[in-house]
TrEMBL record:
It comes from Fulvivirga imtechensis AK7. It is an enzyme of class 3 (hydrolase). Belongs to the cytidine and deoxycytidylate deaminase family. This is Cytidine deaminase. This enzyme scavenges exogenous and endogenous cytidine and 2'-deoxycytidine for UMP synthesis.
Length: 160
């Protein structure tokens, strides 16, 4: 018997230009955020941008440390900044981008498992889904409707 109440909803876009203007603007913010990446070890500059319900955008970039795993992913930097500075403001969506240091082309990237878990915590806390925008090939983008799409069999407060 298969019984599933999790819907894995996503939309695939064959070109960034197909995205809504609000989504393209958020992706641009994530690209700008990657410019502040401190990534001397991986040379992989990741940027994340959150769109809050107030219309404000919160940016984050990956911050590495020679004593791995003391660094932080771009998504976590943005989420923790939002949590500390916009405590009860709903996060509508997050865009994630990445490129090689010194490169101009942005590359496919999806949030790591740890970031997915952190995003899920914020989604559960606000009791509203967070959309996620990410590049999955040369110019193809995916928008998922909820963090649970990326982490369907998740560990959350209900498991405690």
């Amino acid at each position: 018997m298969i019984n599933s109440d999790i819907e894995l909803k996503y939309i695939a876009y064959n070109d960034e230009a197909e995205l809504e203007p609000e989504d393209r603007a958020l992706i641009d913010d994530a690209k700008k955020a990657s410019e502040s990446s401190y990534s001397p070890y991986s040379n992989f500059e990741v940027g994340a941008a959150l769109l809050l319900e107030t219309g404000e955008v919160v940016r984050g970039s990956n911050q590495e440390n020679s004593s791995y795993p003391c660094g932080s992913c771009a998504e976590q930097v943005a989420l923790f900044h939002s949590g500390a500075n916009h405590k009860d403001v709903v996060i509508k969506k997050i865009a994630v981008t990445a490129k090689k240091k010194g490169g101009s082309a942005f590359l496919p990237v999806t949030p790591c498992g740890s970031c997915r878990q952190v995003m899920l915590e914020y989604q559960i806390k606000q009791n509203l889904p967070i959309e996620i925008l990410m590049q999955v090939s040369a110019n193809k983008w995916i928008k998922v409707s909820s963090v649970e799409v990326l982490l369907p069999f998740c560990f959350n407060k209900n498991a405690l």
